[in-house]
Amino acid sequence: MASITIRNLDDDLKKRLRIRAAERGRSMEEEARQILKERLEERYRSGADLVRAIRAIVEPIGGIELDLPPREFIPDPPTFSSFGFNDEKDE
């Protein structure tokens, strides 16, 4: 197994780790391993997870109707030819 050294650990953080480890009957080293393991094993939350979470909230109440804003005309982007830039792609 690999080992790491954590330098410049904030004194308050070390104290909190020591207390947390003691509360769980572990050494500080074992507690740090468990924290790393738990955090790194958490499933990556994707956009699909967010959609499912929102759906779980709004479906039981019948959904939510949102007013769509009116579409607006989008002007053409500015050209910078007056500054000496060529807007056409070089081929």
Features:
0% strand, 3 helices, 91 residues, 43% helix, mainly alpha
Q: How does this structure look, described?
A:
The chain is mainly α and 91 residues long. The chain has a domain of 51 residues. Helix content is 43%, strand content 0%. The protein has 3 helices and no strands. Helix 1 crosses helix 2. The mean pLDDT is 86.
Task: Compose a concise summary of this entry.
The chain contains 3 helices and no strands. With 91 residues, the protein is mainly α.
Stretches where pLDDT is under 50 for at least 5 consecutive residues are none
Which class best fits the helix and strand makeup?
A: mainly alpha
Rounded to an integer, what's the Rg over CA atoms? Answer: 27 Å
The average pLDDT score comes to: 86
Output the number of helix runs.
Answer: 3
Give the topology string: H per helix, E per strand.
HHH
Through-space gap between termini: 55 Å
Q: What is the subunit organization of this protein? A: single chain
Q: How helix-rich are the residues, as a percent range?
A: 40-55%
**Shape, principal axes of CA atoms:** flat
Number of E-type strands: 0
Largest sheet: none
Which range does the strand content fall in? Answer: under 5%
